[in-house]
Design brief:
The complex is a heterodimer of chains A (398) and B (307). Helices cover 61% and strands 5% of the residues of chain A. Chain A has 398 residues and is mainly alpha-helical. Classes of the chains: A mainly alpha (398), B alpha/beta (307).
Chain lengths: 398, 307
């Protein structure tokens, strides 16, 4: 019986071009677009801070400070004229956030130990966020310390001849001082836009089973095919099982297709390749849970709606709402705390967290068990509710 | 084969079936006649175990429907009025699917498929998608699906609705052929001539009650065919009631139809004069309504379920 239902459902989906587009093409395109569009957001090569320097000291020390600043990949230097020392003097379109003015006498003051000494002047654009200012100030302070250390070594050299070799261990060597390791990733790996995009759009795409499922289910109801099947001793649980099995398979095909897009297609277009986590079992667990939740939602909407148009409209809206709330459209880490808490009401958020645990955090089955069970329970509850409602409708001949 | 005793079915405060009694013997074609909303579909639905009923007893194949629903369904088949099939599947895919979901012995599946295909002459169109078939072929496929479990009992719910007369006749002959194979058939229809053509037994249902039941031959012998049916324009039940009160043996079929029994020239001209005085236009007069139609209209007029 289930074999016949599986074949029927698969043939009907394969012959529905709109359904195929919604299930496979749309999420793949989303993955491509979002992975490429957000590539720079996740790259540490991207310049975050734009600055310019006006050097009125013109000493070896002031030039060294500028050299240190230029070693940072997150800082992008712009050239301006000496007179443009205020932002209002600059033309519209300059992305400058900071103008660093190195005053005359900077080199002399470097070694002077005065608590209220102001070595540099910083002009800051009024739209710069405080955290950005803090990052730039920290960078400047570090570079000034580096200059001071260099000066100290020069001054102490006559008294301590081997000071250079003694202090070589505490030289500032930029990022090399700290070994950064992203949890769950290899030593040289880092999060990429593809790692973020693929899980999001897999989740979103899986919920689009609503389109083929509701179209087929509502036509079955309207054409009395369900009544006929009921007269052939097909019970509602058997009917639902006949829907669950094919769409579990379809959802899994979606997952692997989209992983394939992330691994092979995105890099071909210049994006970062998706790296799989360490747990295929965990991936399958989350996929199964998410698939059940998506199928439960789809069946319930198909039972509640009277027409295909209603089902696809309601289904589309529900998907977009669940996606917006659940961190698909806007990653949760961009949301304020209250919204992040609110996001947890969406099953898409549970599924997304599960996939991120696998793809981004490199965790395994134990880490995703909670999300998997929650998703499966949600799916079962929705299917049960749909079953009760369908049974009631069929008894009343609706 | 089917025994229905005092069955009552209520929907909230509406009684759809009111103490229905019916008996259908093996090998018989029963015509279930009734206006829209009379209770035909409800009765067929109950007999197929699709709708529950509140009171009464039903036995099919000598088995209680309440306790043996699955067994009864396994041995019978319901062919709904709407084309309950998949438009995007081919004829063969449809048949394979509906055969596959039923618990049919694997040895019988092939034989039943061949039987359903040959009886309905679907061989040449097996690979065609159902949506591309003509209305008649779609109905044949609809019937073929109902034959896949080789049923002893078949329920047809207005199978010729919306089909042109030539194909309708063809389908009627197919249904009639099932009788020769010993199958029992319950056939609902609005078309009297269809019932007269293929049925042995008739049950007329109105307002949820069986108002007449018996063999077609007996019922037709009892009914005299001297009636005329008058189809009217701009009438209305109130005005027709006033006219019917003035002339003997005039029944109001609905708001625009009158049935005149003993329609001789004198009585008919009197009725026409009354209609003229009420400025009611006569659109059509049909003499010699079939005996069954006459009986049906007489039994269901005045208080027809769909008026």
């Amino acid at each position: 019986m289930f074999k016949a239902m599986l074949i029927k459902e698969v043939i009907l989906v394969l012959r529905d071009r709109h359904a195929l587009a919604a299930l496979f093409i749309m999420p793949s395109i989303f993955i491509l677009i979002m992975s490429l569009a957000l590539k720079d957001t996740f790259s540490n090569e991207r310049a975050l801070l734009n600055y310019a320097v006006i050097d009125r000291d013109n000493t070896e020390q002031s030039e060294l400070l500028q050299k240190y600043l230029q070693t940072s990949p997150v800082l992008l230097r712009h050239e301006i004229t000496e007179t443009a020392s205020q932002f209002q003097d600059l033309g519209v379109g300059d992305n400058l956030q900071f103008i660093l003015i190195i005053p005359a006498g900077f080199a002399q003051q470097l070694s002077a130990v005065k608590e209220d000494a102001r070595l540099l002047r910083l002009e800051v654009s009024s739209d710069v966020k405080q955290e950005v200012l803090t990052i730039f100030r920290a960078k400047l302070s570090t570079d000034i310390l580096r200059l001071r250390l260099g000066r100290m070594k020069e001054e102490l050299a006559p008294f301590v001849p081997d000071i250079a070799s003694r202090l070589s261990g505490i030289e500032f060597t930029g990022d090399g001082l700290i070994d950064v390791h992203f949890t769950g990733m290899e030593a040289n790996q880092k999060p990429t836009s593809t790692q973020q995009s693929v899980p999001s759009w897999i989740v979103f795409g899986m919920f689009f089973v609503i389109i083929p499922m509701s179209t087929i289910f509502i036509n079955e109801r309207r054409q009395n095919t369900l009544t006929r099947m009921s007269a052939m001793n097909i019970t509602i649980p058997a009917l639902f099982a006949g829907k669950i099995i094919p769409y579990l398979i379809i959802n899994h095909l979606q997952v692997w297709l989209m992983i394939g897009v992330g691994v092979f297609l995105v890099p071909l277009l210049g994006g970062d390749a998706l790296t799989l986590g360490h747990s295929v079992t965990g991936l399958i667990m989350v996929s199964l849970g998410l698939s059940l939740a998506a199928i439960g939602t789809s069946v319930l909407i198909a039972v509640l709606a009277e027409t295909v148009e209603q089902a696809t409209t309601i289904g589309g809206l529900v998907n977009i709402l669940l996606g917006a709330i659940g961190g698909i459209m806007v990653p949760k880490f961009y949301m304020p705390k209250a919204m992040q808490d609110f996001a947890n009401i969406s099953p898409m958020s549970w599924g997304l967290e599960g996939f991120l645990d696998i793809f981004l955090r490199g965790l395994g089955p134990a880490a995703v068990l909670k999300e998997t069970l929650a998703l499966a329970a949600c799916g079962c509850f929705l299917l049960l509710l749909a079953g009760v409602l369908l049974s009631h409708k069929m008894r009343r001949g609706v | 084969m089917i025994r229905v005793k005092n069955v009552i079915k209520r929907y909230d405060d509406h009684t759809a079936l009111d103490h229905v009694n019916l008996q259908v013997d093996k090998g018989v074609i029963l015509g279930l006649l009734g206006p829209n909303g009379a209770g035909k579909t409800t009765l067929v639905s109950i007999l197929n175990g699709l709708t529950a009923y509140q009171e009464g007893e039903i036995e099919v194949f000598g088995l209680s429907l309440m306790q043996n629903r699955n067994e009864i369904r396994r041995r019978s088949s319901f062919i709904p009025q709407s084309l309950a099939l998949y438009d995007k599947l081919s004829v063969y895919e449809n048949l394979r699917f509906f055969a596959g979901i039923q618990r049919i012995d694997s040895n019988d599946v092939k034989r039943n498929l061949e039987y359903a295909i040959s009886v309905n002459r679907l061989g040449p169109v097996l690979e065609k998608t159902a949506s591309t078939l003509s209305g008649g072929l779609k109905q044949r496929l609809n019937i073929a699906i109902g034959l896949l479990n080789d049923p002893e009992l078949l329920y047809f719910d207005e199978p010729t609705a919306g089909i042109d007369p030539e194909l309708r006749n063809d389908i009627l002959q197919t249904i009639k052929s099932f009788k020769k194979e010993g199958k029992t058939i319950v056939y609902t229809s609005h078309y009297m001539e269809e019932i007269e053509k293929i049925c042995d037994q008739v049950a007329i249902i109105n307002h949820g009650r069986i108002v007449r039941e018996g063999s077609l031959t007996t019922l037709l012998q009892e009914e005299k065919s001297d009636a005329a049916v008058l189809e009217l324009l701009h009438a209305g039940k109130t005005r027709l009631a006033a006219i019917a009160g003035k002339i003997e043996d005039v029944d109001i079929v609905d708001g625009s139809t009158l049935l005149l029994h003993k329609a001789d020239a004198r009585r008919l001209s009197t009725l026409l004069v009354h209609l003229e005085s009420e400025t009611i236009t006569v659109r059509k007069i049909r003499f010699g309504a079939t005996n069954l139609e006459s009986l049906f209209l007489r039994l269901t007029s005045n208080h027809r379920a769909d008026v």
